[in-house]
């Protein structure tokens, strides 16, 4: 069978000895990973996130990143069983965790030459001790953002990386605190009307040009707030290789 080739712009970085698969459809995460110098493919986990519940935000984002990683691995296994030619090597999911997963049957993936990394992530916003995921409606998104006005919120982000060749998985979470100035109602209305805030945890997009002027202070890394902490991701990659 002829080996399938990736599009040229998605081929692995010639300076890297591993492939990268981002298990996320997030535009922000794609941009961050590209800014880190990686070329990668993407794959969606398609899980029911509401089916996984934890009391602590750190445990929740970790469990969800793990679940996304497991779902994508299952997809790879199904492809294997169908006899298709795929080359995964490492899986990255976001949350605080460290585990060894069963080795995949990788003969058909022909991964002797190089490993591949799969990265999966999750994020929630914590406000006044309550966990906030993606808003279920415009009204809920408006309620969320109004609460941030003149106040403080935190993001808890997880990253899990699984080496699909060795089966090694490493994961951890990162927390960032954001303090806001008063946010005018017209700005909130514009954000709701635009709609992007409906697709992110806690309706929180601090890099958005409408909200950025009202961010008073970020205690931590901005890339973590955007969903993929760079320093943590780089460290976990090294640990699974």
Automatic annotation (TrEMBL):
Transmembrane stretches, start-end: none
SUPFAM superfamilies: ITPase-like (SSF52972)
Cross-referenced Pfam families: Maf
Protein's UniProt keywords contain ATP-binding: no
Alphabetized UniProt keyword annotations: Hydrolase
Top-rank lineage group of the source organism: Eukaryota
Gene Ontology MF annotations: nucleoside triphosphate diphosphatase activity
Protein name: Uncharacterized protein isoform X1
Gene: LOC113714402
């Amino acid at each position: 069978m002829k080996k399938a080739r990736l599009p040229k712009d998605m081929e692995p970085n010639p300076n890297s000895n591993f492939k990268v698969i981002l298990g996320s459809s997030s535009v922000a995460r794609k941009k961050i990973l590209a800014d880190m110098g990686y070329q990668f493919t993407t794959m969606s986990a398609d899980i029911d996130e509401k089916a996984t519940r934890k009391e602590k935000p750190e445990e929740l984002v970790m469990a969800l990143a793990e679940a996304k990683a497991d779902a994508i691995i299952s997809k790879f296994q199904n492809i294997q069983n169908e006899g298709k030619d795929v080359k995964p090597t490492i899986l990255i999911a976001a949350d605080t965790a460290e585990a060894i997963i069963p080795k995949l049957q990788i003969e058909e993936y022909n991964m002797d030459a190089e490993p591949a990394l799969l990265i999966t992530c999750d994020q929630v916003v914590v406000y006044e001790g309550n966990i906030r995921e993606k808003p279920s409606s415009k009204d809920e998104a408006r309620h969320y953002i109004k609460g941030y006005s003149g106040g403080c919120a935190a993001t808890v982000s997880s990253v899990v990386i699984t080496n699909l060749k060795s089966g090694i998985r490493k994961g951890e979470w990162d927390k960032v605190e954001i303090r806001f100035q008063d946010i005018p109602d017209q700005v909130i209305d514009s954000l709701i009307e635009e709609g992007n805030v409906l697709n992110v945890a806690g309706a929180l997009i601090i890099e958005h040009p409408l909200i950025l002027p009202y961010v008073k202070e970020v205690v931590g890394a901005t890339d973590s707030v955007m969903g993929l902490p760079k320093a943590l991701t780089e460290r976990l990659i090294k640990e699974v290789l």
